Amino acid sequence: METLHVNLGSQSYPIHIGADLLTNLPAFLGSAESWVVMTDETVHGLYGQVLMESWNHSKVHTILLPQGEDAKSLTTVEAVLDRMLDLGVTRRSSILALGGGVVGDIAGFCASVYLRGIPYIQVPTTLLSQVDSSVGGKTGVNLSRGKNSVGSFYQPQGVFIDTTTLATLPQRQLISGLAEVIKYGVISDYAFLGFLETHFADLLQLEDEIMRHVISVCCQIKARIVAEDEKEQGVRKILNYGHTIGHALEIVTDYKEYTHGEAVLIGMHVEARMARELEMIDQEYCRQILSLIERTGITVDVKDLSIQDIIRSMEKDKKNRDGKVSFILPSNKGETTEVLLTQKEACSLLEML
Prior knowledge:
With 353 residues, the chain is α/β, with parallel strands linked by helices. It folds into 2 domains: 2-168, Rossmann fold (3-Layer(aba) Sandwich); 171-352, Dehydroquinate synthase-like - alpha domain (Dehydroquinate synthase-like, alpha domain). The protein contains 13 helices and 11 strands.
């Protein structure tokens, strides 16, 4: 097992990465009066029994969450909080989030607001959540006009990444996770981008050594950025590469057409071309980014969607400043720059692509 650390002073916590962690996870957990395992039906069916077989705690409750991005709502949160009250969960209890990004976001947000905050840990089971959403303490749910418009920065007590769970991950979810993996190469580590190009086939085959290295590098980058800027006032903004367009695509399609990762892949593709159009990167580097994204097999063509609708969906984006839309665009190999555009400027630029 490899252990990394997110250094946040009194809120610091470890990230454990290894195979078969679920089989002995309870041995690593701290004490709690009771535990609430939040998961969804699919993950519970795959790993619920594996987790519980080694857990001798007398009070472990399970709450099954709805599946899908549209489950990230205040309606879901209210139902979960009511259930926790019914179970007698106290401030001495803890939450264990077992699942992908949706489960982690809902569980973390519920932990942050229930009785003004109780401890929780992240046990991510998808590639996307293992390399990104489980680390950093971003929690939240969606409103109809904005992705993650309601949320909090609330750090977990720890993150436990069991790489074995990737073996049951559907191919579509694996591809979705690669969005965040590729993102790290573009925003912070050009050598890592080259590694991904060389070992892309190994990634798709879930080659163990390669996957552990990829997860470790991504977590190291995320941990460093979060330690430097926990509340996204500065450098943490670079993690939003691909997300301005990606979130807009999710909103205009009511979260039904794309997974989050698919939307981000398309967003990174579009935003790399925006950077090229603005002469922030040269043609060779732009082509390198686009080629790696296209190797995922995802359809990047969104011409059937209205550019006006996409622009309008950005109006309430929480990253906007001074009435302008914030884009994180590639500006050099392994580097990005924030670019603020008016809606008219963004629309004109997108129409040229």
